[in-house]
Amino acid sequence: MSERMLHFMGPSRWDEVGAIVGDRVALLELRAAVDTALRTGAGGTYSFQSDGEPYALVVALEQDMHPVHTAYAAEKPRGRSLRETVPMRTVANFNDGYRKALEFRDHLFRGDVIVPALSVEVMNDNAQPSHGA
Hints:
This protein is an alpha+beta fold. 31% of the residues lie in helices and 20% in strands. The chain has 3 helices and 6 strands. It has helices at 24-40, 94-110, 120-126, and strands at residues 6-9, 19-22, 42-48, 54-60, 68-69, 86-87. The strands form 3 sheets. The protein has a two-stranded antiparallel ribbon with strand order 1-2. The radius of gyration is 17 Å and the shape is globular.
């Protein structure tokens, strides 16, 4: 059984499907991160890939996505339109979301009791260290 396993698949063409697939805990924590971003501008969580490798997941609210772009693998020079001038890592709420994801990671690795879908703000106020095995 998995816990906190979450995968993203982005389409590589306009006519392909994108997907988010995860276990219940990971999807609840993703939802909490999205809810936090909608409320405060930034959210974050910490998930795992199927090989057990962990990663911080940033959720950032950006009011105008029109200029924001992602880079294609090994893209040199950028093959984008002139309007796509803002890399995702530079949007206003990215760093705050990253900070929240790392705080979530710290709660996990300290052994704090984490109820799925609690936001970092709630955990900071109410987290109790786990004293179990």
